[in-house]
Amino acid sequence: MHEREYDIVLFGATGYVGRLIARHLLHHAPGDLRIALAGRSLNRLEAVRRWLGGEAVSWPALRADSEDIPSLQEIARRTQVVISTVGPYHGRGLALVGACATAGTHYTDLTGEVLFVRDSIDCFDRAARNSGARIVHSCGADAVPSDLAVLTTALAAHQAGDGHLAQVDAYWRDLRGGASGGTLASLAEDIRARQTDRDKARLAADPYALSPARDDEPEPRTVRNRLHVGRARSIPHWETPYLLSAFNAQIVRRSNALTDWSYGRTLRYHEALTTGRSPLGAVRAGALATGQAALVTGLSSAPTRALCRRILPGPGQGPSEICLARGRFMVELHAETTGGASWITRFGARKDPGYTGTAAMIGESALALALGEQLPDRAGVLTPATGIGNILTDRLRAQGFIIDTRRESGGPEPTPTP
């Protein structure tokens, strides 16, 4: 990539999560990295710079609007990497993806919208591959923990000579924190899009909706996420559906396919939220399932959607610093390999997953892309695992994230693979 005026442009810097990302970049980016903030209002961008203080006061402020395509093309031409926090992405985010794909500019976002990612693949994957752009969607709580945990496990199992991954169960445990207003807005938009188009609803429900070669994958009826309250398969805990698990699974399956099914050709992936092993855990699981179902129902019709907007956090809103400091999460992944071995991988942090955790994950994703640190030799519409890979794991460990894996049991003694 030829020299650009900026290394990173943060589009959507005036929102709540955007400000957290800007703060992360201020504290953790190299001093010589050229960072600019972009958004619709120069006055609000100036307020963000004052709030950040320090070197950020001199960061350039660029006016850009998701409805103003020339402004998006302009920022794409001037920078190496774009971070976009401007959602919901479906219907308003595709123009920026196209600008970056055409200009050869790397791109990251926080989308959890399968229809948006599918549109991005169909419209701009070829252009991005031709220009060398890495379009890396879903660099926050959805879907970095799931995607990198599976990558870490697959690499460790391969190096130990344990074969490919056959079954993976990922459990969100010790979760304290909430979904951001932007995530809820994206969920509402995704539900609305599915309701208005049966084909889109069918596509969104396909476990392999994001596969680069759908005909090479199993039929949807043979692969289903277990969407019920019950006992977890791999641990003696109660589990309940998790709102983002279906999307995270689609990202993991795309990562597998983009790497020529290096995780395992017959990999089965399941993700859920656990609530403990006691009878009280069963009650919690039922309550969470009911609450999530009520949320989806509430976002499914115009009158109740308007009510939800009044009582739930909206885009740009977030918790206090005290609440953020209490946040934490842990994803525990249990994997069985084709060689009969069992592996356990942990991915977590003492950070609110939807806010400070997400700011660190996408911030480090953008820094890795801007600095070009041992990135996979790959371009196009990618995933965190395939577009950034192990270097993101290393960067997050340096930020205090717990990311480790161990061989638990089973199979013959491992024979390390050179």
UniProtKB/TrEMBL annotation:
It comes from the Bacteria. Residues 8-130 form the Saccharopine dehydrogenase NADP binding domain. GO terms for cellular component: plasma membrane. Coiled coil: none annotated. SUPFAM superfamilies: NAD(P)-binding Rossmann-fold domains. Residues 198-220 are annotated as: Disordered. This is Saccharopine dehydrogenase NADP binding domain-containing protein. It comes from Austwickia chelonae NBRC 105200.
